């Protein structure tokens, strides 16, 4: 099985624990349905992007320069790296 490739797509700009939502400042393109890997000092998990919001409105895709809200399955912290995993 091929090792997945990791593409750096952004950084966590904030995390709302009561909502389990991370604000991700994108440096690349990210779409709903793609798998991401969040890595930081105490963060290390991957998940599928189930929903994404831009200015509190649902979107299917985010681009470099935008800050999007992502529902996350685990706790993350500001400055954590966000990678897109592709086979």
How is the biggest beta sheet arranged? 8 strands, antiparallel
Round the mean pLDDT to the nearest integer and report it.
Answer: 96
Derived structural class: mainly beta
The number of distinct β-strands equals 10
Strand content of the residues, in percent? Answer: over 45%
In short:
By secondary structure, the protein is mainly beta. Helix content is 0%, strand content 55%.
Description:
The chain is built from no helices and 10 strands. The model has no long low-confidence stretch (mean pLDDT 96). The protein is globular. It has 87 residues and is mainly β. The strands form 2 sheets. The chain has an 8-stranded antiparallel sheet with strand order 5-4-10-1-2-9-6-7, with no helix packed on it. Strands 3-8 form a two-stranded antiparallel sheet. It has one domain: Beta Barrel (Elongation Factor Tu (Ef-tu), domain 3), CATH 2.40.30.10.
SSE blueprint and pairings:
Blueprint: E1 5-16, E2 21-26, E3 30-31, E4 35-39, E5 44-48, E6 52-54, E7 57-58, E8 61-62, E9 67-71, E10 81-86
Antiparallel strand pairs: 1-2, 1-10, 2-9, 3-8, 4-5, 4-10, 6-7, 6-9
Task: Please supply descriptive tags for the structure shown above.
Elongation Factor Tu (Ef-tu), domain 3, 10 strands, globular, two-stranded antiparallel sheet, single chain, 8-stranded antiparallel beta sheet, 55% strand, mainly beta, 87 residues
């Amino acid at each position: 099985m091929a090792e997945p490739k990791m593409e750096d797509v952004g950084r966590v700009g904030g995390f709302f624990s009561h909502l389990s939502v991370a604000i991700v400042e994108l440096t690349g393109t990210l779409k709903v349905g793609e798998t991401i890997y969040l890595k930081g000092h105490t963060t290390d998990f991957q998940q599928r992007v189930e929903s994404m919001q831009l200015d509190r409105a649902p979107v299917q895709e985010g681009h470099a320069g935008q800050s999007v809200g992502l529902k996350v399955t685990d706790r993350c912290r500001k400055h954590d790296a966000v990678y897109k995993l592709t086979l």
